[in-house]
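User: Reviewer 2 asked us to show a designed sequence for the structure in our supplementary figure. I'm pasting the structure tokens here. Could you produce the per-position amino acids so we can include them in the response letter?
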């Protein structure tokens, strides 16, 4: 994993939020763990004010829950939450892909292709941190290319809660390689403006992610919240 990026003095709470997202997505703050302000101010070398503003930002995104008398806690989903969230995400990403294939500009396609090649380089180096950052950027760019702001807002809010799960599925070498191959097919389908192919590819991509997450869960490699009785 890469070191956390340095914090710029410009928009300090936004910069802190970037680093907190990295800690949460990569599991360096475990699901269900309380965000300890004293420890985080020391780690990130900031005061409590920008840290608290950053926590509010990522709470709005769904990466942490703000609980009465407990403060900010890294989101921890139940098994049912995971299944339901990936089911909805599959539909949202399928719609994004289909619309993007119809509406993408040459400039947007060139940018996605460039990010894809950077992602391939990160995969070749087995640089999971940068691979995941680029992977997320590609999915976001496909969503943006659909040019539907309602779809984008809905996708962002739901996807945020499973980012750490999506990150960890790439810890399996075979599944990581297969995901890379699926991304290659997506870029090709976008280049052909093939909406039907993009819809099919993205549904399968999310089904594969969900399957990988459930396999890790049942193998005891992931911890989830117990469902309320």
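Assistant: Here is a per-position design you can include in the supplement:
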């Amino acid at each position: 994993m890469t070191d956390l990026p340095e914090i710029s003095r410009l928009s300090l709470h936004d910069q802190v939020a970037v680093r907190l997202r990295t800690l949460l997505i990569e599991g360096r703050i475990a699901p269900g763990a309380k965000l300890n302000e004293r420890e985080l101010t020391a780690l990130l070398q900031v005061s409590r004010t920008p840290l608290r503003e950053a926590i509010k930002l990522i709470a709005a995104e769904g990466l942490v829950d703000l609980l009465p008398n407990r403060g900010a806690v890294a989101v921890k989903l139940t098994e049912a939450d995971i299944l339901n969230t990936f089911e909805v995400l599959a539909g949202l990403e399928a719609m994004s892909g289909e619309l993007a294939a119809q509406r993408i500009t040459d400039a947007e396609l060139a940018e996605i292709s460039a990010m894809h090649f950077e992602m391939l380089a990160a995969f070749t180096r087995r640089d999971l941190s940068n691979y995941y950052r680029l992977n997320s950027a590609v999915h976001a760019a496909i969503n943006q290319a659909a040019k539907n702001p309602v779809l984008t807002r809905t996708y962002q809010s739901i996807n945020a809660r499973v980012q750490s799960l999506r990150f960890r599925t790439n810890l399996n070498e075979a599944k990581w390689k297969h995901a890379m191959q699926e991304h290659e097919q997506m870029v090709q389908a976008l280049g052909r403006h093939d909406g039907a192919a993009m819809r099919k590819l993205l549904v399968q991509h999310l089904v594969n992610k969900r399957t990988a997450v459930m396999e890790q869960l049942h193998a005891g490699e992931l911890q989830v919240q117990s469902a309320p009785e």
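For the response letter, you might also mention the following. Residues 79-103 form the longest helix (25 residues). The first strand starts at residue 64 and ends at 67.
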